[in-house]
Amino acid sequence: MTQTLPMAGAAAPTNTAGLTRKDYQGSPSTLCQGCGHNSIASQIVAACYEMNLVPEKILKFSGIGCSSKSPTYFLNRSFGFNGLHGRMPSVATGALFADASMHGIGVSGDGDTASIGMGQFKHVVRRNVDMVYIVENNGVYGLTKGQFSATAEVGLELKKQGTNQYMPIDICMESIASNATFVARSFAGDPKQVKELLKAAIAHNGIAVLDIISPCVTFNNQDNAYHSYAWGKDHEAPLHELSFIPARDEIMIEDIEPGAELEVELHDGSVVKLKKLGNDYNPTHRWEALKMLEEAQRENQLVTGLIYVEPAKSSFTDTYNLVDMPLNRLTEADLRPAHETIKMVNEMMF
Amino acid sequence: MTQTLPMAGAAAPTNTAGLTRKDYQGSPSTLCQGCGHNSIASQIVAACYEMNLVPEKILKFSGIGCSSKSPTYFLNRSFGFNGLHGRMPSVATGALFADASMHGIGVSGDGDTASIGMGQFKHVVRRNVDMVYIVENNGVYGLTKGQFSATAEVGLELKKQGTNQYMPIDICMESIASNATFVARSFAGDPKQVKELLKAAIAHNGIAVLDIISPCVTFNNQDNAYHSYAWGKDHEAPLHELSFIPARDEIMIEDIEPGAELEVELHDGSVVKLKKLGNDYNPTHRWEALKMLEEAQRENQLVTGLIYVEPAKSSFTDTYNLVDMPLNRLTEADLRPAHETIKMVNEMMF
Amino acid sequence: MNQKIVNEFSITVGTVNGSGSSTANNTILRAIFKMGIPVSGKNLFPSNIQGQPTWYTIRVNKDGFLGRDESQHIVVAINPASFARDLESVAPGGAFFYADDIKQPVTRTDITAYAMPIKQLIRAQAEVPSNLRDLVGNMVYVGILAQMIGIDLEKIHAALDFHFKHREKPTMMNFNTVKAGVDWARANLTKADPFFLEPMNKTDGMIMADGNTAAALGAIYGGVQFAAWYPITPATSLAESLNDYLPILRKREDGKHTYAVVQAEDELAALGMSIGAGWGGLRAMTSTSGPGLSLMTEFAGLAYYAEVPVVIWDVQRIGPSTGLPTRTSQGDLTFTAHIGHGDSHSVILLPGDVFECFEFGWKALDLAERLQTPIFVLSDLDMGMNQWMSKPFEYPNTPMDRGKVLTEKDIEGLKGNWGRYLDKDGDGIPYRTLPGNQHPMSAYFTRGTGHDEYAKYTEEAHIFHRVMERLKLKHETAKEYVPAPIVRETRGAEVGILAFGSTESAVEEARAQLAADGLKSSMMRVRAIPFNKTVEKFIQKYEQVIVVEMNRDGQMHQLLCMDFPALAPKLKSVAFQDGLPASAKWIREGILKFAKPAKSSPKGKKKVAVKKTSAKKGAKK
Amino acid sequence: MNQKIVNEFSITVGTVNGSGSSTANNTILRAIFKMGIPVSGKNLFPSNIQGQPTWYTIRVNKDGFLGRDESQHIVVAINPASFARDLESVAPGGAFFYADDIKQPVTRTDITAYAMPIKQLIRAQAEVPSNLRDLVGNMVYVGILAQMIGIDLEKIHAALDFHFKHREKPTMMNFNTVKAGVDWARANLTKADPFFLEPMNKTDGMIMADGNTAAALGAIYGGVQFAAWYPITPATSLAESLNDYLPILRKREDGKHTYAVVQAEDELAALGMSIGAGWGGLRAMTSTSGPGLSLMTEFAGLAYYAEVPVVIWDVQRIGPSTGLPTRTSQGDLTFTAHIGHGDSHSVILLPGDVFECFEFGWKALDLAERLQTPIFVLSDLDMGMNQWMSKPFEYPNTPMDRGKVLTEKDIEGLKGNWGRYLDKDGDGIPYRTLPGNQHPMSAYFTRGTGHDEYAKYTEEAHIFHRVMERLKLKHETAKEYVPAPIVRETRGAEVGILAFGSTESAVEEARAQLAADGLKSSMMRVRAIPFNKTVEKFIQKYEQVIVVEMNRDGQMHQLLCMDFPALAPKLKSVAFQDGLPASAKWIREGILKFAKPAKSSPKGKKKVAVKKTSAKKGAKK
Ligand SMILES: Cc1ncc(C[n+]2csc(CCOP(=O)(O)OP(=O)(O)O)c2C)c(N)n1
Ligand SMILES: Cc1ncc(C[n+]2csc(CCOP(=O)(O)OP(=O)(O)O)c2C)c(N)n1
Ligand code: SF4
Ligand code: SF4
Ligand SMILES: [Mg+2]
Ligand SMILES: [Mg+2]
């Protein structure tokens, strides 16, 4: 606690902010080995480093869930607020008024965003709050051990939960329906794309929703035999051993060419179909974006890339026409009306 | 309280349920004269009467707001539950399990649904709960005296509230994004269309969202001078008199032909552009519906009619495969496991 | 005619909501106020927008007792729908003014009835356009009443001039209508009731305001920078007043803003945003009423445990649940004191009048930052939405207290060696840094989960315990900072009375009546929770302390018993709720159940003059 | 070796979560249980999924005291990350078993240390596939321990057979691994610690279960028809047990369902749905923990005021806010008792053990329909998620109480002359009809706004007041229906002890210790709020009543002071919270602060044998 870290701006080896990659790191992760959320955290570190951002100029936010634990695993030098389940948007909205020059990065889960947090999510999008809103989407509640989330595939079966009856909520379509100004989708196992999209999202003025498919290696098993491990060669007696979680490696994919498709097998044998948006796709047409998403839903594809962007709009804080000085540096002289005004006020009262 | 009403099924003059129109009525309205919500209530009475529904087989639900007061103004012989602000969907979802043979009709407002109630709204849609979900959409909070709701037009100015900065939430697009199986839009001043859509909605198995534009004669003034009445011919001194609400007649429109457009001037001089869906429009393509709504948003049109329907799906209660007898008529014999089972249970405990 | 009754009666106007009568009623109120006579106005309005019965009661009282009077001495009946009950509500010997187009019989003989040809008179006013006749027509009863009880016409003009922002045309059109009423009454009515107004000088230097406006203004003088809110009666006008006055009082040359007011999508978000802003170092607040407060429960617990400064105004209405949204109560006390799951206790301010709404408006922001905890301010509908006489608002007499905040320089001085939740000063209050602090060791991570003194995540039992014990110590510290109670001791008092909030005026009136009956009492008005030493000492001093409050369960009594178990047997509860503002009547009767006056009435003290009718609880049936 | 210590010690296994050790630990627990020795198991697990330290403690106690023991007599260390603290945690004279691949020094000489070659032994088990070595490897320490303290191998086999649902292959593979451990230990280790197990017959006829399973089963026997829930630790397994057991226990020939369990989108919706179902006439419930309960606040107020039957299980974890999601507490009591804005008071059941979780599981549904109000059942993590010995569950001994419901025939008989909120019986409980009732006069309109006895909207002050007073009367009536407290009086007791919930076992142990010290006490375990006459009488009887509870603020003490102000001075609070289950140690020490034992120790009573080490609060650092 007493060692002195280099002040931002001090001479240092690596990026133009004078900081090393280490200055962007967080504490060691306590998530499962192989969890997609971990590699997203790494890419946040990489993106901020490569963009030469000063960590002190970033605010981190999250809700509750495995995903929402992530902000402790990156940017230790940034202020962070790990709030309530589903309520990250409101806390971020208020906090970003404190110093409008700062960047906001929020991390949420699909349960956090699409179940309990649906209302706040839709409204933070609608307000175009200037922040990156990452959904680490695994289709389940990780931290509470594997219930369906609202983005779970219809027909998915989980032990104890039965069969999911509902169509999944599509975070990207929801964002566009509520007039988001930046919407993208990626896959945690595609670090290059995640990083590039993160950079674009951070640079965007306004809400930037990043729906990142991030498989839960522990609970999202489409296989009906939940956590089943074959005992012996004959596979005769699969066993349900809830408290044993074998160490697994994260699924990483090779680069996909724009326009190309890739089927990725998850740990449980289920398959996701990824498709990268082609170079001819124009992400500035809301209309095309909706069409593309609707088609992808029918094709059961996960289309990745920058789906929609509307760069010109002013963000939420912009519309408030705030003073240049960060609001939280204003003093009594700026904030308390002058003494003589009290007379006027009393006269206004009759 | 002691007069005996005719039992359903008893011989009576009018509809095939043996009931008169009076049997469908509610208590006198306490809403403002000319409020669009009142004529929606009348059409609910008319639709149920004409469909020969038995009022005892209908459940009424609402949240909080002027709109949500409506259920007392129709179907006095039906059970009703006026719950909490924004939480009508959950109460209805639970209540409809009590007796799956009953019809659910819910009335909500745009504040009730699209602001505080956004989360529950999206989820009741996603679950395809078998009920009619009416949004009496006026773009303001009527009951709390005229603040913006989330469906207010961007750029709308209201005294004390300033200028609305956000894009309005489109109830129909939101419904379709969340996989609603029946989505329609109408205008309170077009009673014929309202009634026909109500009938279709009631007949639908699953969620039927009806977004009915229902102008608030008292608060939704686009005119910057909130409640301004000209004093004398010269109009020189408009006055803000919040506590005076002049009696006004409800705006009624002539029949629009399918495919035709109509501009309707509201009490405050603002104009809404209505367009009736043409006969060639096919409401069974989700894809076309999204496209149509996106275009209408850009054209600033309110397209009315049946926008989307997916008839084949099973509703929420269907998926639970319930016994035929209404659950709330089951008795101890049906519900309490037999005495001998307790031994087995204890053995299961080790 | 009975003996003249001067400056000591109440007037109720029964009308229809949405009819614009509030301008008329406010005009009467303001004119009487300008005559120097203590006066209050209470609006009893329905929870809808148009067409339902509504009542406005004005009480004049030369002694300054301005709580609700259960007797209606003068009743003005404009609404056919409530005519019968309005007629019934007139106290025996009272006066009844009614619109003569209501074709219902006046069946009582124990009162004086005056028919008013309002429709006819307003039609005769050529300058009033036909679409405004209903609205301006209300001025007719103002004129008739003015003539019959003696409201100064000049003061009426002043009131109208104020209301219409000094625009002559509407002022004169309304004033001329008032005069038409005056003229007609002078020509046609004969005074047969005993009620008269006579000028006094008891309102000199006073203002008239409602608590919500006062609270908003106080917050502005407290430097509020962020407010998020969601509409709800009766709190809406607090946030709307911020929108009204911030642009005036915080205007800058460059046209830029030092504040933001956000209408949130609901109350969860409203408090969430305010917490975000408070955490960010802004003076942040939200305002709501019961249902909204219930929704804020989870976030309130987070702010308590993560130690985030934020101010929450709860303008109480009667509950539980949606209850009666337009009726008053002091019913949220016990809930607020322990809001949220787990061990928690809230700091609560209890303003007693409009002046304190202003004062606590800025003090609450100081306290929030000083104590790093949510500060709840419990007002109520009666205080918040009704017009009250008040001392003029006073400019804050202490500089802003921004609490324990470490800047870049401080952190540098400490060589980064600080802990967000370390109790350096032994008062349970730690130091914080603000986002945007550029020192690389300034950042910390806030969470609602278990954390140690360095804000690091922990599940260690003894650390969790230690942090919770420090929060308890902080609550002790709060006692030194919160507003002390107001104590009014009477020599030889047999009983102590403990009250809080808007019941003050009614309690004082009851005390005066009891004193006249021969029962001497001392009074303490509690202004904050946690209770400090003074509260304990007051209870210790008296054999019985009667806790008076406007709720069903005696919630202040509950909290006192919890905090002072050793003194609990002395504490008696007088609690009543029906949604109407407190009246001296039920307070007096309640107190008499526990404490009997000495046999002989004290020498010379005259009986309080206000006549008691056989008033019922819940006045109107 | 010291003197033998038989059947009176505790074992803690320190491991990594996600490593599958719970099968091993459960096997030990069950085997000991089958040996007839009173035993309990407590899981101290982190709030994440994999890779963090976790501890499992098994306590054996021949006298049946099964609360948490602050001393760890035998510690099994498998996790390198917690090796040092595990080593430190062993009580002097204790035993320390550790995996020999942890290359850390054993620095203590006051204990017996045994190195275990787990990796090596499991590799030698040819039948265990390599991907399962980590999992099955845990059986090695089971075997070593079995050999060293004397766990019956046959019972271990029985436990494995049960766990693996009588499938031979996995049972044998695990059992063979256990035997490999046994064999190795027999050959290589020399017993040097004093701890031994010897068969008893004290568990005959008993079962082992956790409170959440018991609650779910109880609800099923109560005929639950609708449950909506949202996942949250430690309540999740309650709802999941409904999913597990409903299909078995409510199986029908036609394959159709008489129930529905819905995973809601959050807790607001979970309670909203349950209220809808309860209103509709279904036996409806929800289950949650602190944060979820906070979110249910507004709906709870609606159910109270609109009088809707619904059951809310709150499996308490330690708060405020997110707190420590995997640690226990009794901290939601005061909040629950007054949940929601406005005047309200809740009916709360307080099960004391797994048996009562089952019993209150069905009783709560009866009470909800009888009283037409939300019934809160406050369990906690320790009771809900840990395995407890229990009497077998008993089939409900009363028929279902569906409360006051009017059918079509009843309405016909009344000629429709009924009022939903009319108090016909003078007990404050009105009659209701159920949706689907086909009588044209059966319908009524439910609302959270003001309503009269006929469920009509009203803003009348006196009616609102009257309805609220009836609700108060209903709360009085509730006292007759809720489970009475359990009283255990001791002749000549100097002090009364009042406790509730899962602390029972620890309190009884403390009482036994105090009795040995010479302090006689009587005990009352409160099982419900509102408190009935018995509670009052018990407090009256003793000069001092010490209220023992597992929270910071002494919440039961708070509520008792509120309800019995006259008795409040007698009530003393012993409250402690750090997230760990209650231990006899702090209870005993807390009680001794108020009550001193008589000077001389009573004749013949032997000191309780469990050794007291210098245990710290919050055991693990
Ligand atoms: C109000 C509330 N309800 C429930 C919980 C319990 N809870 C913790 S995390 C979680 C789900 C998280 O799911 P998701 O957001 O998808 O994150 P993941 O763990 O899958 O990354 C839940 C329900 C809580 N913390 N707060
Ligand atoms: C929790 C809660 N917050 C706020 C309110 C106050 N409130 C009552 S109605 C309403 C808005 C209603 O607007 P809308 O749903 O559009 O209905 P309208 O009156 O316009 O028909 C609000 C905010 C409330 N009753 N409950
Ligand atoms: S449980 Fe799933 S989501 Fe949670 S940390 Fe493990 S892999 Fe990730
Ligand atoms: S305020 Fe508006 S929405 Fe409410 S009743 Fe009047 S017209 Fe209708
Ligand atoms: Mg998830
Ligand atoms: Mg509206």
Kindly describe this structure:
The complex is a heterotetramer, with two copies of chain A (350 residues) and two copies of chain C (621 residues). Chain A has helices spanning 36-50, 66-69, 88-95, 110-115, 118-127, 171-177, 191-203, 286-299, 332-335, 341-348; strands at 58-62, 79-82, 103-109, 131-137, 140-141, 147-148, 157-158, 162-163, 182-187, 207-213, 228-229, 239-240, 261-265, 271-276, 302-309. Chain A is an alpha/beta fold and 350 residues long. Chain A has one domain (21-242, 279-325): Rossmann fold (3-Layer(aba) Sandwich), CATH 3.40.50. Chain A has a nine-stranded mixed sheet, with helices on both faces. In chain A, strands 5-6 form a two-stranded antiparallel ribbon. Chain A is globular and about 75 Å long. Mean pLDDT of chain A is 88; it is low at 222-238. In chain C, strands 10, 11, 12, 13, 14, 15, 16 and 24 form an eight-stranded mixed sheet that branches. Chain C has a six-stranded mixed sheet with strand order 3-4-2-5-6-7. Chain C has 621 residues and is of the alpha/beta class. In chain C, β15 (347-349), α13 and β16 form a beta-alpha-beta unit. Chains A and C meet through β2, α3, α5, α9 and α10 of A and β9, α7, α9, α11 and β20 of C. β2 of chain A pairs parallel with β20 of chain C. One thiamine diphosphate sits between chains B (64-67, 85, 109-112, 136, 138, 140-144, 149, 216) and C (230-232, 267, 291-292, 295, 322).
